[in-house]
Design brief:
The protein is an alpha/beta fold. The chain contains eight helices and seven strands. It has a seven-stranded parallel sheet. Strand 4, helix 5 and strand 5 form a beta-alpha-beta unit. Helix 2 runs parallel beside helix 4, helix 4 packs parallel to helix 5 and helix 5 packs across helix 6. The chain starts with a helix and ends with a helix. The relative contact order is 0.11. Keywords: Cytoplasm, Schiff base. It holds the Pfam family DeoC.
Length: 196
């Protein structure tokens, strides 16, 4: 938490079992956590319960993983119902981000899942967990997601964003937030490139 505060990041994502946290050393830092992580193959009621518990334990944001198999099979109604269940368990002002594993989906599936997330009341669509064998964020996926949600939802690029060049390309493609495991290195690269 102290490092996140020192680097000036918006939020730090942690496993739900680490909640609640003492944020006295990091005032203003938001806490994000995950549900249905990393496979998304949990029952919707389990995801919703996990998300609700995390919010009770102090999470400001919940990142849920969709059932990627349902999306691949074209069961977009099931994907929307899954997201709706978690949204009901995490009412505003809690931020709900929907991890779609974009690298595992076709363009058509990415668009359909983003539409399902919007219809279910999500706040963000997010490229990936960073654990799926198909890969993480790509400029193409971020651009497609951004075009689909049209500014009505945020777009988070996550998974494989490791350099300042990666970060800038994702932002240029439409990412409104980045998920980084090497924040200090990316920020250092940005400072060097921009002469901050």
């Amino acid at each position: 938490m102290a490092e996140g505060h020192r680097l000036g990041v918006y939020s730090v994502c942690i496993s739900p079992s680490f909640l609640p946290l003492d944020l006295s050393d990091a005032p203003g830092l938001k806490v994000a956590t995950v549900c249905g992580f990393p496979s998304g193959k949990h029952h919707s009621d389990v995801k919703a319960t996990e998300a609700a518990r995390s919010v009770r334990d102090g999470a400001d944001e919940v990142d849920m993983v969709i059932d990627v198999g349902a999306a691949i099979e074209g069961r977009y109604g099931d994907v929307e119902a899954d997201i709706t269940a978690v949204r009901a368990a995490t009412p505003a002002p809690v931020v709900l981000k929907v991890i779609i594993e974009s690298a595992a989906l076709t363009d058509e599936q990415v668009v359909a899942v983003c539409r399902a997330a919007e219809a279910a009341g999500a706040d963000f669509v997010k490229t990936s967990t960073g654990f799926h064998p198909a890969g993480g964020a790509t400029v193409h996926a971020v651009r497609l997601m951004s075009q689909t949600v049209g500014g009505r939802l945020g777009v988070k690029a996550s998974g494989g964003v490791r350099t300042a060049a990666d970060a800038l390309s994702m932002i240029e493609a439409g990412a409104t937030r980045l998920g980084l495991s090497g924040t200090a290195a990316v920020l250092g690269g940005l400072e060097a490139a921009e002469g901050y």
